[in-house]
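Table S5 (text form). Sequence records supplied for joint modeling of the four-component complex.
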Amino acid sequence: MSHTPSTRLEHEYLMTLHAPVAEAPQQVDGSLTIFHSDRGWAKGPRIDAAIVAPTGDWLRTLPDGTLRVDARMTLRTGDGAVIHVVYGGVIRISPQQFQAMGAGAMLTSDDIYFVTAPVFQTAHPDYAWLNQVQAVGKVAALKGGEGGYVAYDIFGIR
Amino acid sequence: MSHTPSTRLEHEYLMTLHAPVAEAPQQVDGSLTIFHSDRGWAKGPRIDAAIVAPTGDWLRTLPDGTLRVDARMTLRTGDGAVIHVVYGGVIRISPQQFQAMGAGAMLTSDDIYFVTAPVFQTAHPDYAWLNQVQAVGKVAALKGGEGGYVAYDIFGIR
Amino acid sequence: MSHTPSTRLEHEYLMTLHAPVAEAPQQVDGSLTIFHSDRGWAKGPRIDAAIVAPTGDWLRTLPDGTLRVDARMTLRTGDGAVIHVVYGGVIRISPQQFQAMGAGAMLTSDDIYFVTAPVFQTAHPDYAWLNQVQAVGKVAALKGGEGGYVAYDIFGIR
Amino acid sequence: MSHTPSTRLEHEYLMTLHAPVAEAPQQVDGSLTIFHSDRGWAKGPRIDAAIVAPTGDWLRTLPDGTLRVDARMTLRTGDGAVIHVVYGGVIRISPQQFQAMGAGAMLTSDDIYFVTAPVFQTAHPDYAWLNQVQAVGKVAALKGGEGGYVAYDIFGIR
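The corresponding structure-token record, covering 632 residues in total, follows.
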């Protein structure tokens, strides 16, 4: 074992999540901001689901200004599966970008770093494959203001 | 936004972790098994650190038999940084493989699925880059019995 | 230090929480059931607040059948405070009681054990006292079916 | 339901915990300090157990200066039970008190507020009663410096 990798990281596209932000984020204090959503969707080659409540992100600001995602999401598929999604993640966004976003700008992964790490839990046999994968999400778009939403692509790590 | 990805997932090798298992895992009940470690190392192009206590994994077994990692690790570098590492993850291992491992066999990522998603926290300016990345770990080796350890490669997601 | 207490536990009534259950609980699998609420209230001698989204309980069933509360709640007061509440807890309820509740029965602390342990977080100076207390909640009423809700009294531990 | 309690909080002494601090706390950044312990004991009318690794507290400092306990502890009884303990909690301690403690002073619940909320998990039938109770811990003594430890009384809430 030396300090070079002996494994190869591979990934597979699983789905895209699109979550409208329900209303202005709730600022608890300088270290905690709460977002929530009760609609939106998750679509991919093997899934077509709605985001339902309870879905929220209890976003923490670390002393160095980086953000830590702490999110829980509920998905319901057309064929009756309830899927619990939980994820941490890391966001880097400058104060200027944050302000622009609040004024309605749309940011993408070219502008900001926004990567999450979802895991899934469900008893529905058609979605057992979701229980078996550590996923990673990468922001596709983040828009603030009226009609604000976040979209990210979810990849399964292999 | 359709159900194809608009982003590209990339990764960069950060370090390899090597954590001897301190003693036999502690079985709390059918849903929770606790491992801990108080030595080992993390080495990579930009880091050379020791694993110190408290470091443990409170591994949960879901009803479908897949495992969920719930780990907290403390790293200390030669130049005095204290780095808090926290990660979830997903493990798939068959009862036969688990038994073989307990008897001293070494498993690799060819045998089992064992992927984690670490995030890091530190105030040391030389390691600020760790605060800014969502990482993914992939098992390199998992050995049970005497001299048991787990090793995994850590990649930063971009 | 012997095995008798050297401290005295005291408590003070802080508020009563009344949370209508928004809809039927979402059963993820045999170990996880999700409840959520987006209305209700918290009232006490020093607080009058509304329960808002995101508010949910990700209730886990342990192998021995006891339940573990894992809840996050958001409160908004009339004078503009946003208060984040997070709590674990323990519930003991028999299958017969659970079935009766689902059919609309109201249970109280005479029937079931339902005790939670909330902590609060807010930046609003009028509610700084909430940041400074570990609280305990005891179920006052739990009603299932149409018009279902949970109510509990919250006491600050001293 | 009005803003007076309809329930009565009662409690029962369960045990006293005595946890030597293994070494100087590890300061991650301004918001996170890690303590750990790998010895100590839990004694009460119905339990006599040793504290073993992994046991730690990932103590968070909120923006208002109050502290949030985030602890995981492992207990092992003489008759072979493994008991997982997890607890949050709230600590209020002044900078002066913190400094005095670091220099070796012993503080008690007359000096500081230090209340935790443990829950327990075990499969051992003789300790099934621990699975069924939300507990509260109150600091009995907190000593820093050489020979430092924390002791608290644990009460079951009824």
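Note: The domain at 11-149 of chain B is CATH 2.40.160.20 (Porin).
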